[in-house]
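> run fold Transient receptor potential cation channel, subfamily M, member 4a
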Amino acid sequence: MDSVLVDLQSNMQECSLPPALSGTRPCTPQNGSPWVGRKDVPCGSAHATATLEYRLEVLRTHLESAMKESDRDREGVDGRAGSAGDQSWISKVIKKRVCTTFIADASSNGRVCQCGSTLEGHDPVAAANVSGAAAALQWDSLQHSSEQPTDAFGEVEFAGAGCRHSLFLRLSCDTAAQIVYALLTNHWGLPAPNLVVSVVGGEGHQTIKPWVRDILRNGLVKAAVTTGSWILTGGLREGVSRCVGEAVRDFGAGALNSSKNKVIAVGVAPWGMVNNRQQLVNPKGSFPARYYVQHKSLDSNYLDNNCKAFLLVDDGSVGRRGGVEAFRADLEDYISHQRTGIWGSGGIEIPVLCMLIAGDACMLQRVKNSLEKSTPWLVLAGSGSAADLISEVLSSLSDIIHDPTSPSSEGPTPEVLSDDSRQMVRQKVRKYFPAETEVEKLVEHVLSIYQKRDFITVFRGESEDSDDFDTVLLRSILGASKRVCNKAIEWVEELKLAVAWNRVDIAKAELFNGAIAWSYHELEESMTDALVNDKPHFVRLFCENGLNILDYLTYGRLEKLYNKLSDTTLAYSLLQKRLNERQDLNRSESLVNGAASASKASSECLMMSPASELQLSLFEVSRLLWDLLGDVCQPFYYGALDLDPKTSPRVALKQVHKLLLRDCEYRRQRCRSPWTALFIWAVLQNRPKMAVFFWEMAGESVMSALAGCKILRELSKLEDETESKLEMKKLAQKFEDLAHDVFGNCYQNSETLAFTLLIRKSPVWGKATCLQMATAADARLFFSQDGVQFLLSQIWWGDMERNTEVWKLILTFFFPPLLCTRLIQFREEEELNPEVFQGMDTDGMDGNEGSVLSLVDVVQNKEDAEELRALKENLSDAPKPRVNRPFAVLRCRQFWFAPVTSFLGNVLMYFLFLGLFAYVLLVDFKPPPPDGPSPLEIVLYFWVFTLVCEEIRQSFFVDGLFLLQKMKNYIQDVWNKCDLTAIILFILGVCCRMFPASYYFGRGVMAVDFLVFTLRLIHIFAVHKQLGPKIIIVGKMVKDVFFFMFFLAVWLLAYGVANQALLYSYDPRSTWIFRRVFYRPYMHIFGQIPINEMDADKLDFLSCTNDTAAIEAGAEPCIDTYANWLVVLLLVVYLLFTNIVLVNMLIAMFSHTFSKVQEHSDTYWKFQRFNLIVEYQSRPSLPPPFIIISHINLFIKRYIRRIPSVKSQDFAVELRGKKVGQLNVWEAAQKETLLTAQSKSERESDSARLKRTSTKVDSVLKQIAEMRGHDRRLQLLETQLEYCCSSLSWMMEALSQSNMISAGRPAPLLKDHTLLSKR
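> ok
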């Protein structure tokens, strides 16, 4: 409603009332119309503009009052209005026309008015005006009819045509076009068109040729779909309008599941011609009106149910088409001046194209008037009278004008046309319209049309292909736009139209064919339009033809792109939440600084804040990415905002607030990684094609694909709509597959470079590595490939050979001197040669010459890394000898610093810990002090203390995170929760066992704690290749058990309560109630059924009582045998459902889970193995309880000597300088190789081959059709040649018999060419 008012206000501001009307006041309406009987509004054509402005002012007044009465929300989601209250204002603004003067028709004996209605159909006032003088008048709509509030509007439901409703409105023929357009777009919810195709002509019961139907079905609807256009039709089930409706119906039947591609047909029909129109009449609106259509197979004047909306134009007549064409022309002209482009805010006007099919003589004036307004026309030659006339005249006059011998060749204007040309036009008019009397008027119309021939495109459907009609249609508009717009910018306007229509094929053929040198500024606006409206083909086209993305994408433009997000996307709502947080913080600060009240401060803050404060900034985008990606990478765009990554969010909010109040110079800076920024922007909106294109253009392909996978999977968890959730998951899986394929190519090309790719820190993605991002994205498929597993195995075994047996490790673990023997084989250490590092700077990126990083850098320990770094730094100065350690020390370091040794030590010591714990509980658990605890129990306490120290190290002593984030990451792990539970229970048990009162409770807590510690073994054995997948299966089955327990609990409760109530009439003992309601029914499942307490025939007569007082004192109540048969029946039913139904259901669930997980168990295990390797690689070498020594050593190095950790860099290496570019170039080369292979595979697929075969078959069929045409032409030529030969023979015979000519030689003989043809 607001947009309607704004539209009216804008139109009122464009023109002002004349001075003569500035002081006038409207008179009292008569017959319910504000236009009838007014004496203050001047009449005549000179005051037409003032009359229209006066009507707009009255309509605006009605609209304002209607808006005050209607305060309900309208739906506007799928283009349908909501309820009757939403459209109640229509009857106050939109009018209909009613005949107010009965002018009798001479041929009806005074019973029928010239308006077409009978005398009984007029109101008494109009019927009273019957007179002889009135009969001599010619009925006119403006003079003899008045406007009244419309009584037909709302929704119409076509009986038997499905549940889809259409919108309809009866309106006066002189209703302002801006009112109608605002109603269509703002209130009825029709999307603003990028193109309007108005199909005119072919009214009535004309026979439509088959090729015209094919053009409408294959060309018009296709163009409407690809461009997002409206189709204006006659709206009735007759002629061309019916063919258009059938074409729209056929497309809708083939695209039922598509919510985006919809063809919008708007029917503009005369109200007086509509059959059964009384079914639509309802002064309060119809929601819906049920409309019945008869004789659906024949042409009729019923409404066509394929139209989305109907504008039923009323000029007061019945059975005539008066007023429709003029109203339709005004609506087309108004729409052609509206804007389209970037969601209606672009710099181009909506193009309107009129399409002429057949047509009568009146259509010539319609074409002439539209051409005077520079509206382009597409004429279908061969379709009918008016279209054939125009096409022939254009062709004939063009031949005469371009004939050098013609006297009118100097100019095409009608004034210089010769009399022969006019006579030729006159003959053609009489040929196609022999019954018309005003021939000269029609001739002038035709000549005026010819004068505007540049705006006319003729399509000869009988000789041209109907599949190319959509291209011809759009090119005709482009050709007309060249002649309307300025020559300096004509190509830019055409480009904007092509982008609005999303027709990249036309843009390539017409605009990007090499003839135009496009500059950056000419493509800038169209690039933004293509980005916002999700047109990746145009984005690719622009980038390939002169648009530099580095110049285009600044931080300011990136913010504008985020501000143009659709409000229906999930990313928009998430960003708005972050924006509200920043605005709330600003309001709270203003309150602290002395604002008077919260409401006043809030309003003043919004009014006084600059525009940048009220719009999204890069800080909100950074916060959203931090929420989605977590602590995997550093915050985005903090460098542009001049923020420290270690700054807390609240402090960063304050700094951003101060920054946005200033000039914001960062917005003029170029985006450092434009393709990555656009990739993130597309992924947040879940745009598959756009995101894949930006991924192809961006660097760091593996990292970008994994990051996109992570973002989409996090967004899918927040998405509520099922369809969008599935699309996000599908796109996330696609990016995971791309990362898997690209890295697979990299690993096949060079193992060393591929390993470097996995562990190098990405400068674009916030210092994250591929392994870290893959872990966060839960990319199990990525971890399952051989390259990742080979690197993990290399890190897991350290310098030892990977085929070392476990018994050798255990034996060496307990007898370290065996390291000096050859019991365990170690890999040969790579020589630190200066050529290795020089190879890092080479330009060869084939994976075989040089390497960016060697495996020694991956598996090195701290001391070796320090020495290696020092050697690299001093390599250019002078080669220094390496520090050689003794053989025994070197072997000890290589053995004990390997993650597999750390894992083995922890496993062995953990078994020893469990044995000590069990021995203390079973044998050596002493009473409270002073008798206890025993020495072994104290050792157990110390052992648990070392475990606590290790958990503290894992949770709090992690670099680069805030304290809350560290705790959150620690709690998220399931096994960390298990460790925390075990430690808490142990502390509680120790505290309780120290006091006599709680001694036994503490013993019980510690017994339960032993159970929790023992379950921790499951995680330890997850690294085993056979046990790991089975552990995953068991974990999945535990979830199935919970669902089983839910159903079992329902049956337990139902049967237990019923059984207790039937057996015992009164038993208030709570403990026994619990046992008999839950415990006994549960034991029944396993066969423990006390028959002697349930069956009356086998009851044991024990001491019992029915005395209430005795029962309350604790005596055993007697069993009630009244309904013993029901007890037995319930037992049978209970056992049937629990032992057969529920247990078999549990078995089926287990089978399904096993088969589902077993198929991907190897993938799950490899992913879980990576987490375990990372955990033990970061752990100290010594196991508990000796780990306390490592903790003391680490504390001294990190916090006293301030030596940074190097062991944590085993999974993260930062490259600098030329090596970064070389690795990126090599990775990009592997990506291009993969994309080329995929493209080749797609071209060789069966579907592609079938498509090419279909194209070839179509081409052959076209050639065969052309050959048939040539055959017909040859036959015609042969017939004519035979006639000429016969005539010449006759002439020769006649001349030979006469004496007029004497021949000097005999007549030539006809040679026989049959022998030549046989050769």
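The mean pLDDT is 78.
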